[in-house]
Write a structure and sequence with these properties.
Blueprint: E1 11-13, E2 16-18, E3 22-24, E4 47-52, E5 65-67, E6 72-74, H1 83-89, H2 91-97, E7 101-105, H3 110-119, E8 127-133, E9 137-138, E10 144-145, H4 150-160, E11 167-171, H5 178-187, E12 192-195, E13 199-201, E14 204-205, E15 210-211, E16 218-221, H6 226-239, E17 244-248, H7 254-263, E18 267-270, H8 272-276, H9 280-294
Helix pairs in contact: 3-4, 4-5, 5-6, 6-7, 7-9
Bound molecules: flavin mononucleotide (FMN).
Length: 316
């Protein structure tokens, strides 16, 4: 039987035509093809690799992860080998894996986003897009997060556009200006929104009576983020009917994916669930198929934006 089991799983996010609407989320599925030991990366809609900077970056002190009653906290701190080392050490395995790769990038200044974009020119065809992760401190603005400012986000996206690949921008719900930030990113050349990144949180270790993570605070992910992601997707879809939208946040089951699609996502990414269960993204895809089959849905695109009340793909 086809992966869709009779259900048409094809979708489009911006200009990206995907065979299935489920992908990995940055930072939860390795820098390269590490997950290929557990699942066929080519069976996913896309594989988003962990955010890379132009230069190597050591990340934050341990401990870097902490379990929560629901979900988790992390302060990995964007550790990475830098783009040139990534091209040398990971790209061949990604090509062999059959994945459609989206490269996530970050920087601490607009110039660093530009340099990252330059280093991503002339990649093999398996690299289908670049995700601009603006949930990082902007050293030119006193360390304020790029994603909290429409102007800073637009500048980062504009600088990254030098890569010449379709751009998506990964945003944070840590600002009441989320919809405006999304609009600025789209104006600056992003064709898709990735909603959401983690949200700032903290846990105190009762044994030490100190912050549990080495960096102090961290990012909350998993189940606690799901309703926020649904809201962000819904609001951004209402504001930008033509934008590509990835829904990300607490996707653990096929039903979680259905909810984000109904809210307006064209496709979803699975993050924290993959850390506990490396095949989670494929299970979510299979559960999505079962849900569609059980509810008389013959094509997942019928679900996209349906919560907005429009027929068909909901774009009116
Ligand atoms: C351990 C860990 C590392 C992450 N690293 C990155 C990263 O490098 N770049 C990024 O854009 N998002 C990163 N994220 C955020 C995820 O991609 C995702 O946006 C977020 O966790 C919400 O999805 P989830 O609830 O399915 O995990 C990371 C999340 C976790 C848990």
């Amino acid at each position: 039987m086809s992966p869709g089991g009779g259900v048409d799983l094809t979708t489009r996010v911006g200009s990206l035509e995907l065979a299935t609407p489920v992908a990995t989320a940055a930072g939860t599925a390795g820098h390269g093809a590490e997950l290929a030991a557990y699942l066929d990366l080519g069976a996913l809609g896309a594989h988003v690799v962990k955010s890379l900077a132009a230069d190597p970056w050591p990340g934050n002190p341990a401990p870097r992860v902490w379990p929560l009653r629901a979900g988790m906290l992390n302060s990995v701190g964007l550790q990475g080998p830098g783009i040139l080392a990534w091209r040398r050490e990971h790209l061949d395995a990604l090509v062999r894996s059959g994945a459609r790769v989206v490269v996530s990038i970050w920087g601490r200044s607009v110039a660093e986003f530009g340099r990252a974009g330059e280093l991503l020119r002339e990649l093999p065809d398996c690299v289908v897009g670049v995700e601009v992760n603006v949930s990082c401190p902007n050293l030119e603005r006193g360390g304020a997060m790029f994603a909290h400012s429409p102007e800073a986000t637009a500048a980062a996206v504009g600088a990254a556009a030098v890569c010449g690949l379709p751009l998506s921008v990964k945003l944070s719900a840590g600002t009441p200006a989320l919809v405006a930030v999304a609009g600025a990113a789209l104006e600056a050349g992003a064709e898709s929104l990735v909603l959401l990144n983690t949200l700032a949180g903290m846990a105190i270790d009762l044994a030490t009576r100190r912050p549990a993570l080495g960096a102090g605070g961290g990012g909350v992910s998993g189940a606690p983020l799901h309703a926020l992601a649904v809201r962000a997707v819904y609001d951004c879809r209402a504001a930008y009917p033509g934008a590509g939208i990835w829904g990300v946040g607490g996707v653990e089951t096929g039903e979680d994916a259905v909810e984000l699609l109904l809210a307006g996502a064209d496709a979803v990414q699975v993050g924290t669930a993959t850390l506990a269960e490396p095949r989670a993204a494929l299970r979510v895809r299979d559960e999505l198929v079962s849900w569609c089959a059980a509810h008389g849905v013959s094509a997942v695109r019928e679900l996209v934006s349906a919560a907005h009340g429009a027929p068909g793909d909901g774009r009116g």
